[in-house]
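Deliverable D5.2: sample structural annotation.
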Amino acid sequence: MRKAAYLISVAAMAISAPSFAQTAPATTQTDAQTGTSATAPAAAAPEERDAGDIIVTATRRSERLSNVPIAVSAVGQESLQNSGGSDIRALNQLAPSLLISSTGSESNASARIRGVGTVGDNPGLESSVAVFIDGVYRSRTGVGLNELGEIDRVEVLRGPQGTLFGRNASAGLINIITASPKFTFGGYAEGTYGNYDQKRLAGGITGPISDTLAFRLDGVYVNRDGFYRTVNPAGGTESRVNDRDRYFVRGQLLFKPTADLSFRLIGDYSHRKESCCGATYYSQKQTVDPTPDAVAANGAGVNADHAVAITAANPIVDILRRQGAYYPLAGNTPGTFNREVAITPGQTYRNTTVDYGGSLQADWNLGGATLTSITAYREYKAGNAGDVDYTNVDLTHRAADGNAYRQFHTFTQEARLQGSAFSGKLDWLVGGFYSKENLRVVDNVVFGSQYGQFAACRLVTSISQNAALQNQAAPGCLSALGRGTVTAAFGALAPAVLGGLDRLTGGPGVGGGVNNVGDNGSVYRQKSENYAFFTHNIFHITDTVSLTLGARYTHEQKDFSANFNNTNTVCPVQQANLSPLLASAAVPAAAKAYVGGILTLSCTGNSSAQLNALNLQNNFGEGKVTGTAVLSWKPIPSLLTYASYAKGYKSGGYNLDRSPLGGASGVFGPRSNADAAGLRFAAETVNSYELGAKFKTRGFTLNVAAFRSEFKNFQLNTFNGSVFVVQNLVGCSTSLNGGDTDNLAPTGQCTGKADKPGVISQGVELEATLTPIRQFQVSAGYTFADTRIARNLVGNSAGAPLDPALFLLPGSVLSNAPRHVVTTSASWTPDLGSNGLTGLVYVDSRLTSDYNTGSDLAPEKKQDGFALVNARIGIRGKDQLWAIEFWSQNVFNKQYIQVAFNTPFQGAGSSANVANFGGTGNALYSAYLAEPRTYGVTLRSRF
């Protein structure tokens, strides 16, 4: 594979050599990125162009949006600017099928198209929605949250991609094309001031160095206070969280020695040193079954009448309050949108993120074909420090000592050769792609100084919620009454149980407890090498009928390794003393469950010094053939209809979290190197079908698409409050008889074939633009997407049972997949007199129906439907030499969340667990909030 990048370029030329003699368009890729075409000047006539029908390169050919037979949305620089966007999150307001959110840090962004995407918290998973910037694949969606500088446009391609772009994607693709150098001098400058003391400066300049060499330089600086206020800043902890402090610079050179040859060299550097991301409590109620039922014969929980009652208080909240918590508040009201956070003194969310790299694109018109080569190298490193229990009680944290980060080193090489043959009857394209990526994750997550006390008190509460049993200053969190109660409850097993509780807290004669122990620079490595060959060919059968056929072969090789430096010496002692009880037939089931609870809280996530002796290694290689077929017909010049099929693929990988080692019972005993294979998850595949139509007449465009995408081995990443669980969702061909919806781990094994789609996304999309006069434009979009999980669901293609924590999934709508989304925008730029002054009135909105933000679909993680509105008003001088604009985002200050999650270690069980299985649900839930209302003024100039 060392020579793969070279071989791809040679193969692309050799495969297509017989076609060189045929006539080919002279459009180079550089021309296409700036929306120009040497072969179709009439098509680019200014009077015909409008924002509803801009030039795109979604098919690697410079075409009008209305002539492209795929589902694609295109957003230009002005639309993105008017919406107030400086990164890809602004696309939410303009593309109804797209949803972008960020979670624990801004490197953890997740993009979803038609309800399908990949949760970004686990770097071992690639995104189902790929991101390309200037033709270069970016390793994860989070890099798109950097400043973009000035762009030409953003294209959002919906559905599987692989026969046109270097890297394949199973759900869609975001293609960002930045503004390129020009051979005429020009530039822009802007300054913004807003609430939260926001300051933003941006500028760029371009022009010729010689007749054949042009340059461009763009830069951005942003500084803003955080959206959260820290109620207890101390010990160096910041007073505001979720702030902005970043800068970005991009330099470019465009060299055109001849009309047929061009080189575009791009280098960029982005630096962020910000406090992110805080979260507030979202739900803190305890629920119980008021009419308890006996367990089923197989041990499954039962709540026959599905009754649920809310208690006056939650004992988990009470424990935290006694430990000195500012948040959660007492009682059942969390105060979510107070936008206040409490941080353990001395801990921080401050992290530095650096993203830089360069690319060289060469376009060469060979006469019979055009050869394009894109060579790129990227470096990305994001710190991961944080007070990840989201309270000032020190349960767990990642210290800002440089031992918590994720880092990508990525080299990519893409080569394409394209042209036309048979007197224009065939537009052909062949290409190759190679990438080599080294991913390194370093972790220092530890149990905090108050964890042992909290864990023991939580276990005591599970025996009785009588606070008199607890003494947080005593070993085991037990008062004298508590010790007597435990002794009476467990009889002969009491010494073992009491010893386990005492070792959790620590104390005289029992050591320091599970406090200030955990990882100290543990390292996960994933090396990926990928090569692919692809082709995309358009056969013009008649003047109005075209057939597109594309194919791709991808080979992926991944190597995983991990080494641990863990200081939790209590876990092995607990395992040695308590695990034999779990294997004893003489121990009652209830006692086993309690002992299992002590072990779980002592060793959560396989945090154990025993891991230090391991050297985990595993690898795999896989190859996959995918492709597409599109039949399009233009019955009249203003109408394009099409039907398409595409098969997509996203490679498998490794869960970069030690938690799943050994499976569900992994924490009950020592682990071995053989457990490494359990971290692997399989490739995700999709079969996608689409019917569409695009209508365009002067001043009006309408695009309609109906779609159905069937995903097998859908990669689901779920945080259950302690660990990350990654499973491949697949449907079983035979009934599981409810085994996928109970609370038992062993049930739900597929005895038939696990070969049915695990997730199906289907629906309809509409996008329309009306431009009745030159100065006024209205756009609207609507997406109905029913993105639903299969029934009879299993956890992989071997038919393994679904994790019991995911019992709500079968037959339900996937998380972060609203069924209805409506976007609108209106822009009016009237002339103000006859001296060249113009006005600007702009407003956009996104109306979203209800959806659940959690991968496990716990009802506490639901977000109700809401509307979000942005607005801008301004005056511009002649030729936009100057402009002043007043703006607001989230005009009506809508309070909503991005993602809700189980607050780490703080309780267990949702109201859905109680409704289905009885018992008690006392889990606390936190949420990453969306941004509040912001407003300000922007001064800008173009010259």
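Annotation notes: Residues 589-603 form the longest helix (15 residues). Residues 1-49 have pLDDT under 50 and may be disordered.
The annotation will be released with the project's public dataset once the embargo ends.
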